[in-house]
Amino acid sequence: MASGGVNPMSGNSRVTWNANMEPILIEVLLEEATSGRRNSYIAINGWTTASLKRIANEINRRLNMTLVSDNVRSKLKIMKKDGTLDQAGL
C-alpha cells in the first residue's frame, strides 16, 4: 500500500493524505468534472455518491490503496475550506 492510505490494522477508516495523493485527487476530480457524465457534479450540493466512488476507485487503482468514497468526501471538505478546490478551478 502507498504511504498515506487507510490503515486496516487501526480499526478505523481515517486516512492520512500525503503529498503525492492530493495532486492525483485534483487530477481525477477534473477528469470527473469534464467527463460529460450527466449529474457527475452538482455545484450547489457537491459531488454525487457515484462520482465519489469513481474518484476513490481511480485513486486506489493509481496508488494501490483502499480509499472509500467517505475518505474522498472528507478530504474534499478540507480542501474546500482551505481554498485548494478554488485554486484548482473546482
UniProtKB/TrEMBL annotation:
InterPro entries: Myb/SANT-like_dom. Pfam families: Myb_DNA-bind_3. It comes from the Eukaryota. Residues 16-82 form the Myb/SANT-like domain. This is Myb/SANT-like domain-containing protein. It comes from Coptis chinensis.
